[in-house]
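Format notes (please read before filing issues)

Several people have asked whether sequences and structure tokens are stored in separate files. They are not. Every record keeps both together, in the order shown below: the sequence lines, then the token lines. Line labels are part of the format and must not be stripped during preprocessing.
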Amino acid sequence: MPEKMIYLVTTLQFADATRNSRCVGFYFDLEDANRLVFNNGMDIAEEGYYRYAVIEEKGEGTYRMVSNEWWFKFDRGVNQYVRCSKPEKLHNVCCFGIG
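Then the structure lines:
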């Protein structure tokens, strides 16, 4: 039986630190998590205050590492998040939603 995964959605104010970040929710389906982020559902960007968002795929357990992560940056011009690369200063950081 395949492992059940959850998809954590975390927003971050800065690309260089984990302070001023918060996990805004989780989903059992990656498409639902993507829909929330791409559409800035419930204004998770808080009018652009949270410039970055990350979706992390995690399995059940304590101190589980992230399997995959997808990064987004808020685009004020279209008022939504767009895909981006993981910020360089966070390259060695993981587990933003549940650490």
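For reference, the curators noted about this record: The CA atoms of residues 34 and 53 lie 10 Å apart. Residues 5-90 form one domain.
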